Task: inverse folding
């Protein structure tokens, strides 16, 4: 596996660091400067190990074959395959593809995927990275052409069964009108967009989740617990607006940008809700916390919950810090 090594020939590390503070610049200033910071350059300014930076770039590059596979795995009216199989195939295709990428990279020691029952060990690994992932979140939306994504969390001590706050990095790619990468290496959150040359260019180097008023709640209303229903009622009276697509990664991303919260609560007869602690809550929660937000199961931070089983489900509330505190107050009352 050849890892792409792009370096800007003229820009010093210090310059890149200064330029990555896009928050301080207006769009016009940025355009005038014609500053374009690549993912590689951004990673060079971070205090993250070289092999971790290589692993992140390698994962981010997989957006290209995954996007291509949406087209090659499409079932057209005259195609022989049944459309349901094709759709399911994208989940397993992405999982198999990423698994092989990790294996040949020799950078990953352990992998836990939402699509696999057991943990996979890679004995040839030369690094100690352990990955938790949802290879294709929101896959039931592929046939409707709504945004879906890949979610990844990275530990550096060779194990996946540990609390989420130990992650060294977390990222997700969204396959929407653009291909974007949202990344944290524990130094805040950055968002990149892929350009025509398939290069990730920095959109925002210091993402901060505002206290906005969007919300998304999974589960059927008739199955909501009373306290959850009271919380939703409270925010609706405060003017919160419903935005739920059925793709956690896409629904979270708009909360990251505009503020508010996403939740999939405990349900009547289903107290653990639907989403998974390791593959969904940990990486997204780490990103939320690094952007100034929070993730909770209703009473405590999900990043501090030690997993007891690989595919453990959990109620999830993730979003702006203020509204997560409001929720915890109502649910504990
Ligand atoms: P799929 O990957 O099977 O489409 O599941 C998506 C998901 O795990 C998460 O991305 C959504 O927020 C949630 O399930 C949607 O669940 P509902 O269909 O119950 O709303």
Result:
């Amino acid at each position: 596996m050849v890892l792409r090594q792009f370096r800007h020939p003229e820009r010093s590390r210090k310059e890149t660091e200064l330029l990555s503070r896009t928050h301080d610049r207006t769009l016009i200033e940025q355009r005038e400067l014609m500053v374009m910071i690549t993912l590689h350059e951004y990673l060079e300014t971070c205090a993250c190990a070289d092999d971790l930076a290589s692993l992140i770039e390698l994962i981010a590059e997989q957006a290209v074959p995954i996007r291509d596979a949406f087209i090659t795995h499409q079932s057209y009216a005259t195609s022989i395959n049944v459309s349901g199989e094709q759709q399911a195939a994208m989940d397993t295709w992405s999982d198999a593809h990423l698994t092989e990428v990790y294996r040949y990279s020799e950078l990953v020691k352990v992998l836990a995927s939402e699509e696999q029952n057991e943990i996979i060990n890679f004995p040839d690994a030369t690094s100690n990275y352990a990955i938790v992932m949802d290879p294709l979140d929101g896959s039931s939306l592929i046939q409707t052409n709504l945004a879906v994504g890949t979610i990844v969390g990275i530990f550096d001590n060779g194990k996946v069964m540990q609390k989420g706050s130990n992650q060294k990095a977390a990222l997700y790619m969204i396959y929407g009108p653009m291909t974007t990468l949202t990344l944290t290496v524990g130094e805040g959150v950055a968002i990149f967009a892929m350009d025509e040359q398939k290069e990730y260019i920095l959109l925002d180097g210091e993402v901060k989740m505002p206290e906005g008023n969007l919300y998304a709640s999974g589960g059927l209303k008739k199955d909501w617990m009373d306290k959850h229903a009271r919380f939703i009622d409270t925010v609706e009276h405060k003017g919160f607006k419903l935005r739920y697509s059925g793709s956690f990664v896409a629904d979270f991303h708009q909360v990251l940008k505009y503020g508010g919260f996403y939740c999939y609560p405990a349900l009547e007869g289903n107290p653990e809700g639907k989403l998974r602690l390791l593959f969904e809550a940990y990486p997204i929660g780490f990103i939320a916390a690094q952007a100034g937000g929070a993730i909770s199961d209703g009473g405590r931070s999900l990043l501090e919950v030690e997993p007891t089983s690989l595919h453990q489900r959990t109620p999830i509330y993730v979003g702006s810090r203020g509204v997560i505190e409001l929720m915890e107050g109502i649910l504990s009352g």
Q: What stands out?
A: Residues 1-9 have pLDDT under 50 and may be disordered.
